[in-house]
């Protein structure tokens, strides 16, 4: 959002980063039910492809994991998740 704020300011739209944070938070609340529905549909697949990518977090300094789950042809949804660890409890 820092980068987006700078880009918008160069275009003549000085929007505070806090405003962009508020908008993203509101979008997350509105899209939450859709995300859960997509995740449920992907879990209903006969087979699920899953992959994780380590992500470095700055505060606190540690690693997290970005996951992507792909459903089968009948439930062709792609769902992303971010977890604090890589243990089996996260993809379950």
Are there runs of 5+ residues with pLDDT below 50, and where?
Answer: none
Summarize the helix and strand pattern as letters: HHEEE
Rg on CA atoms, Å: 17 Å
Number of strands: 3
**Hey, roughly how much beta strand do the residues contain?**
25-35%
Q: Determine the fraction of residues in helical runs and give it as a percent range.
A: 25-40%
Largest sheet: 3 strands, antiparallel
Mean pLDDT: 93
Strand order in the largest sheet: 1-2-3
Q: Total helix count?
A: 2
Helix- and strand-based class?
alpha+beta
How does the overall form come out from the CA principal axes? Answer: extended
| Distance N to C terminus | 31 Å
Oligomer: single chain
What's the short story on this structure?
The protein has 92 residues and is of the alpha+beta class. 39% of the residues lie in helices and 26% in strands. It contains 2 helices and 3 strands.
Keywords:
alpha+beta; 26% strand
Verbal overview:
The protein has 92 residues and is α+β, with helices and mostly antiparallel strands. 39% of the residues lie in helices and 26% in strands. It is built from 2 helices and 3 strands, in the order ααβββ. It has helices at residues 2-10, 17-43; strands at residues 49-57, 62-70, 78-83. It has a 3-stranded antiparallel β-sheet with strand order 1-2-3. It starts with a helix and ends in a 9-residue tail after the last strand.
């Amino acid at each position: 959002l820092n980068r987006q704020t700078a880009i918008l300011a160069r275009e003549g739209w000085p929007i505070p980063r806090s405003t962009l944070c508020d908008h993203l938070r509101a979008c997350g609340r509105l899209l939450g039910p859709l995300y859960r529905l997509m995740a449920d549909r992907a879990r209903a697949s006969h087979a699920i492809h899953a992959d994780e990518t380590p992500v470095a977090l700055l505060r606190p300094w540690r690693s997290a994991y970005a996951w992507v789950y792909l459903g089968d042809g009948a439930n062709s949804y792609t769902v992303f998740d971010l977890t604090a660890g890589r243990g089996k409890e996260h993809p379950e």
